[in-house]
Design a protein that fits this description.
Elements (H helix, E strand, L loop, with lengths): L1 H15 L11 H10 L6 E4 L2 H7 L26 E8 L23 E4 L3 E2 L5 E4 L3 E4 L5 H11 L8 E8 L4 E6 L5 E4 L7 H7 L10 E7 L2 E6 L18 E6 L3 E6 L5 E4 L7 H7 L8 E11 L11 E6 L4 H8 L8 E6 L3 H24 L1
Parallel strand pairs: 1-16, 8-12, 13-17
Antiparallel strand pairs: 2-3, 2-4, 2-7, 5-6, 8-9, 10-11, 10-12, 13-14, 15-16, 15-17
Amino acid sequence: MSRFLTTGVVGALTLGGCSTLPSSGPTASQLRHFAEKDNTIGFRLVDIDPVATQTLANHNPALMPLTTLVHSGRVDTVGPGDILTISVYEVGVTLFAGASSTSAQGGAFNPSARGTPLSDVIVDGSGFIQLPYVGKLNVIGKTPAELERMIERGMAGMSQRPQVLVTVKENAHNVAYVSGDVRQPGRLALKLPQERLLDALARAGGTTNQADDMVVRLTRDGVSAETRLSLVDAAGAQNVALLPGDRVELFNRPRTFLVFGSTDKVSQVAFGANELSLAEALARVGGPSERIADPAAVYLFRYGEPTPTLPAGEPVIYRLNMMRPDSYFLSQRIALRDKDVIYIASASANAPAKLAQIVGQLFSPILAVRAVAR
């Protein structure tokens, strides 16, 4: 009776189909079936060949190049909140120091020049300062040298050959702000020559994490752009010159890829480098499992470039046949992108083996009991 029962159970399992057996995901034939018959999101299935590799070989683009924010500007002008030190130099009869002393021997006129430092002058919120005898001056957008000429013209006719020296004691206008994952966040005064992005980050103590994992965001005039810190070269265009009011933020955003299917471990893996190829990614996870994987069915799941009709991009599944020697060359030229998904399909031949294993586990206790009974 047990022989007939065993035969019946095996037949039922076989008729039930191998699709009901435990699996790590679809096989290559099942993926093709879904692409042709049950493609609800409209993905494309593309074989990786020299033509497809030309598209996939593009390096990871900047999130939004910082060069989009570049425009001319100055960091040597006076602005609201600045504290100025103004010194006035006069000869003869002066406005700010009174009459010059006379010689005790003959009362001769003393032509020596004397400097008079004025109290700290603060530029108000509207960009004006108020000086004795000179009055109210609009200094916003003026350099210290231009401001000196303005004050000298205002004193004309009231002082003998006045000369003025203006320095910025405390800079509140020509500043940039650095925050985020830096060692010393805060406000940085901008000086001539113009400081660039990497200069400001260096003054802030540098990043607290690996540069490959960091994203730098620059906000200028209410518009933001961001890119990977590792893509900003000291001599490159993205190392932009900072302007007053710029805000630089540095935050940690590691790039990762996901691995599913017939591999030793389903995992999320960090790039750990500025660039990573598909070949390097497969090597990091141990490649297709020799026991259960189908090396001719390695897939890369990715959304393409966004379009007006597909803001998330077109979903594409790229198939790499690692049974072909040329695939190993092509996979070295394919640049991985953040959040790519690699799927390694199981070999179709695994199904009978799994079925036999299940049947063996199911009936091994019965066989053991029969052996003891004998």
